[in-house]
Amino acid sequence: MIVYGRNPVREVLRGRRRHAAGEVLATESAAREPWLRGVEVTLSSPDALERACGSPEHQGICLDAGPYPYVGAEEILTRADPLIVALDELQDPHNLGAIARTAECAGVDGLVICERRAAQVTPAVCKASAGAVEHLRIARVANLVAFLERARQAGCWSHGTAADASVPYHRPDYTGGVVLVLGSEGRGLRRLVAERCDDLVRLPLRGKIASLNVSAAAAVLLYEALHQRTGLDTVPDGP
């Protein structure tokens, strides 16, 4: 996998999770980034970088990062009172990247995606996540319904999203083991996935648009969960 963009490449190097990470290609300008000190860099032209990574959005740098290190779903479920995001056949790589970025910033224990008919971690997802996927545990499952059943057996409550749900998003208890389940673009949750959730919640819509983007919905739910799990007065302000 050729990862491109300054933030994604920096986070690959910081995360040190990709055992096959190899050659860094960079323009002369990008090679002067302070975080590249001590890293062997091969100088390259913008055109050569675009050919190497297949995108003009390389920001002057790319890296042969090797395969993405997915984790097993059980590794996430065995953590104490985990906060997990599960995506039901989400297909847009930019949405996956945005959700991964928010999830990592909110300190979730893991992100679960479907093996089939769903976006996987690609260079575009790495870029959209600003490198967050290098620090986040991401698991792939063949059957999301079966995963939610295992989560229930592990003591987790699953909360899905649906536009016509009767439960406001802030009403459930998001402390303890929690799985936040979001559906695909347009279709939402599949019927069997929705039925496996302990409840379905809705976000208020006060404008004329019928729905939020799934990555925006994920951000709202995650920070409501973070509020309940830590308390606003104990959340440190960022820089």
Structural descriptors:
239 residues, 7-stranded parallel β-sheet, alpha/beta
Task: Outline the secondary-structure elements.
Elements: E1 2-4, H1 6-15, E2 24-26, E3 41-43, H2 46-53, E4 61-64, H3 73-77, E5 83-87, H4 93-106, E6 110-114, H5 123-128, E7 138-141, H6 144-153, E8 157-161, E9 167-168, E10 178-182, H7 191-196, E11 199-202, H8 214-230
Parallel strand pairs: 2-3, 5-6, 5-10, 6-7, 8-10, 8-11, 9-11
Antiparallel strand pairs: 1-4, 2-4
Report what the structure shows.
The protein is of the alpha/beta class. The chain is 32% helix and 18% strand. The chain contains eight helices and eleven strands. It has helices spanning 6-15, 46-53, 73-77, 93-106, 123-128, 144-153, 191-196, 214-230, and strands spanning 2-4, 24-26, 41-43, 61-64, 83-87, 110-114, 138-141, 157-161, 167-168, 178-182, 199-202. It has a seven-stranded parallel beta sheet with strand order 7-6-5-10-8-11-9, sandwiched between helices. The longest helix is centred in the last third of the chain and has 17 residues, at 214-230. The radius of gyration is 19 Å and the shape is elongated. The model has no long low-confidence stretch (mean pLDDT 92).
